Amino acid sequence: MHKMESMDIRHLVVSMSVPIALSMLMSALYNIIDSMFVAGYSQQALLSVSLCYPIQTLMIAIACGIGVGFNTVLARYLGEQKPEMASQSVLNGMLLALISWLLFLAFGFLGSRWFLGLFTQETGVIAQGDAYLKICCGFSFAIFFQITFERIMQATGRPMYNLAIQGTGALINIILDPVFIFTFHLGVAGAAIATVIGQVTAMGLGIWITRRKVPEIHMDIRKFRWDSTLMLRILQIGIPAMVMQAVMSFMSVFMNWILMPFSAMAVSVFSVYIKLQQFVFMIVMGFTNALIPIVSFNFGARRKDRIFPAVRFSLMMATAIMLAGTILFQLIPGPLLAMFNANQDMYAIGIPCLRIISWSFVFAGVSMILCSAFQALGHPGMSLGITLLRELVLLIPMTAILAYLYGLDAGWSAFVITEVICAILSILEWSRVKKQVDLQLA
Fold this sequence. Notes:
The chain has one domain. Helix content is 87%, strand content 0%. It is built from 18 helices and no strands. α2 runs antiparallel to α11, α4 runs antiparallel to α7 and α15 packs antiparallel against α16. The longest helix has 37 residues.
């Protein structure tokens, strides 16, 4: 019997979540360290990387969306004892990853300067950002395939290998960042080079582990079979998940437009906040990523007695983690900002920013866990709707109105109002979905 349907549910959730959370923490850590080194190089360099951040987020969102799609399909086929279809879901997912890389390759060389010009006319910022995007987009095949192999480890119940893949890439990036930025005097371009070297290494490790350590998956390109029905299933699940993560990219773009009239420092502060916030949110995302294959597998195996306890326990853990994050941001916002070579302007804007927005964390955790449950149970549209409300539909206009009428501090409070509303909606939707699953698996 597979451990997805036999192991104690709390032990299963923790055993799968912790390695994923650690790997995502490592990812958040190297994003933070990346920005710390860039900020140490110059504030102009930090601004250029901050403006590039939405494109990096979009790349990861598309990679994760494809991963969630075939991860869910893969886990369900494994639960239904259909190994051939499980392998085909991986191969079709890899084709989608390849197509995505080609699109970003074209954008990196044709659209990067245009994109940066939307926010600033400073030639130094545009030149540094252009170099950064060309390198990251040109080698983005690595991040697409790295995430593909990470999702294979999650779907097959091997989270420690997931940790090894992401942790290796992150560690290499952390080591190489100061070398390329300062020793070789490459600045922002050096940060991009260190990033892609780490991603290429992680991708290579993912290929090796999948071939040697995952017997359920036969990754033989010669046996690839285009399956339009399978591809459609992957996209039906993956696109809402993709959009859910991509809205962070669009949210960053809109926030930059809202904040730039106040000051360039406000843009940098918001970018720093996002990096620090990730350090808390990535732990919860470890639980959301583990919850999807657990719920999906047991849904395929018709084990509702394991589905609901898994969701309940994940909610408890997410609430505790987010509460700890709120306390941290309330108590030491100054030292957190100091890691990014903060000056008085950054402290003046950043300390209220961190303290106000962090009150939204607990409510965000509830929405994140329940949205993952919706995806795993075949209701991705619900996840998409709630995420759009959280990141765009409610947040952006509310931030703009409050900020322009009452100042930046009022604008930050829009995050809290939005998350409270979306948490309530998520709980109401979960009550309805739970009744449907009860009837379906009766």
